[in-house]
Amino acid sequence: MRTFIELAKSRRSIRAYTTRPVKRELLESCAEAARHAPSACNSQPWKFIIIDDDAVKNKMAESVFSGFHKMCSFAREAAAFIVIVAEKMALPAWIGGKLRNTDFKRIDTGIACSHIVLAAKDLGIDSCILGWFNERKLKKILHVPPSRKIELVIALGYPASNNIPERPLKDKSLTVSFNGYK
Fold first, then answer.
1. Is residue 182 in a domain?
2. Geometric angle at alpha carbon 49, from 46 and 50, rounded to 5°
3. Is residue 175 part of a domain?
4. Residue 120 is part of which domain span?
5. What residues contact residue 99 under an 8 Å CB cut-off, 6+ apart?
6. What is the pTM of this model?
7. DSSP string, 101-146
8. In CATH, what number is assigned to the domain containing residue 67?
9. Per-10-residue mean pLDDT for the chain, 182 residues long?
């Protein structure tokens, strides 16, 4: 069994997938991991929409990842998606965010997203977090109310190649210091 740090180090953004489907139970496990993510004042300001139906995926491929958003067209190959919709915050978290000028809803969404991709990796599923997509068209396809914002889409599937390059990381001295900003 690998440690959490080994899992975190092994996770990569994958941009080419096989046609092999991902079992629904595994997708549900990823969403369940995200449900347990911490959030400001336990607001849980999210809704996770799992997309595993071919007809819905094809609609997304035709309109959500095309035109101006075609740089994410590789996502058309993904076996499934988890769409993260921002929901309302608990009032104390919202007030605290305003006072601190910090968007806790987006921070919480990012934490939940991290839980999804790490749970997926632990289950042998690869992923790519997408922030560039046609939100208006995706809302229409998924019947998301106009008052809600789709923050991220996570493409999920099995990699088309096992030759996944290392990702360059900044030197640790540039990203970590002790007892003060150095």
1. no
2. 135
3. no
4. 20-160
5. none
6. 0.93
7. T--HHHHHHHHHHHHHHHHHHHTT-EEEEE--S-HHHHHHHHT--T
8. 3.40.109.10
9. 90 93 98 97 96 94 84 89 95 91 94 98 96 94 96 96 85 93 90
